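FAQ: What does a ligand-bound record look like?

Like this one, built around phenylalanine:
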Amino acid sequence: LRDKYLTAISGAADEAALEDLRVQAVGKKGEISLKMRELGKMTAEERQTVGPKLNALKDEINSALAAKKAGLADAALDERLRTEWLDVTLPGRPRRQGTIHPISQVWEEATVIFADMGFAVAEGPQIESDWYNFDALNIPGHHPARAEMDTFYMHRADGDNRPPHVLRTHTSPVQIRSMQDQGAPLRIICPGRVYRADYDQTHTPMFHQVEGLAIDKDISMANLKWVLEEFCRAFFEVDNVELRFRASHFPFTEPSAEVDIRCSWDGGQLKIGEGDDWMEILGSGMVHPKVLQAGNIDPNEWQGFAFGMGIDRIAMLKYGIPDLRAFFDSDLRWLRHYGFSS
Ligand code: PHE
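The answer part, i.e. the structure of the complex:
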């Protein structure tokens, strides 16, 4: 009996087989348990010799079972350690991390700076009606500004004689929409995409502007100048920003000014606030009374300034990038070169 069980136990393949053996040998109805029950029918002397032997056998089998069980568990652990082995000294596989496009970064920064000055963000459609993009901004049908803007037109169906919609050529139509929606006083910026059929080193058919509009009872050109200088100081992170207001003409502002920023191209290295170069960054002026009227605001009561700044232009300046087209080539090598991507 002893040999039978000890051999079986040492050969048990797994814990389930071991449990079967335990039941067979020392379970309630196991072979050894039954033998112990028979002790009752024996004489006293017989019991004295057989009893201790059975007890010893039971102990021996129990400890063999326990030992084998522990052995099986060790083996299982060894197996897991072998198969789930992990080399923590292997170098990691680098994962390229995506980054925010420089234009989006500049868009964000500009929004934050103007927000600090109390400008809320307004939005408008990129496919705009002829009226909002032109007429409401005092650019009537025959006006040369329409041709100058290299407008993309959306075609109407044959026989539909209404003026075609356009891809907005500037963010200025959002001025009108905001005036109509919110009335005066008003202080908004509108960052967004605009479109013109133009393509060279400093022009792409889609580009970005941020429009600014402030309307109140006593807003003046002085406020405009302060806001723009303050913006440039914060955006370019230089104290000695110098802006040049050049008299200009826009149908929707009177007077109008184009604004240049002093900079230098020093061996390909761009510096803001020094040197003898001037880079145009925006158009601006006092909102024309007709434009206020188109926005349902009384020009006898209110006045304001407006500006439209090229987001891509100020991004080129900030990062010293000479060709605007590269912004939209989606070339990762270029983005990495300028530190825009990992
Ligand atoms: N809309 C003008 C442009 O795109 C810029 C501008 C905006 C000028 C507001 C004056 C006032 O060129």
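Follow-up question: can I read anything off the structure? Yes, for example: The pocket of phenylalanine is lined by residues 170, 172, 250, 253, 283-285, 306-308 (CB under 6 Å).
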